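User: Um, what's this?
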Amino acid sequence: MARIVVFGVEHPDKANNQRFIASSAWAPPQAVADILREAYPGRKGIIQEGTPREGYTPGTFAFPKKMAVDGSKAVQVTGKEYIPFEKTVLDTVEKLMPLLG
C-alpha cells in the first residue's frame, strides 16, 4: 500500500483523479492459521486448526467472484507486483515473534 501512496506523490500526472485498490489477495483467518501451522509445526498446539483449506483458494488467495475486486491497475501503473500473501503473513509473524516470547 505504501508503494501506491509514494507513487501518487512522485507521479501526480499519472495518479491524478485515479483510485487504486491496494490489494491482490483475500483470505479468511483460516488461511492464516493454515500458513502458520505449516510454517511453525512446533507450535501447532497453540495455533488452532479450524477446518484446513476451507473458505479460500489456497495458493492464489483469489477474491471470491461475488466480491469482484481487482488490484491489477496499481501493478500496471507502478510496474511492481504485490508481495505474496503468504510472505506478508510470515513476515508479520517474524516481526511480532519477539513480543510473543
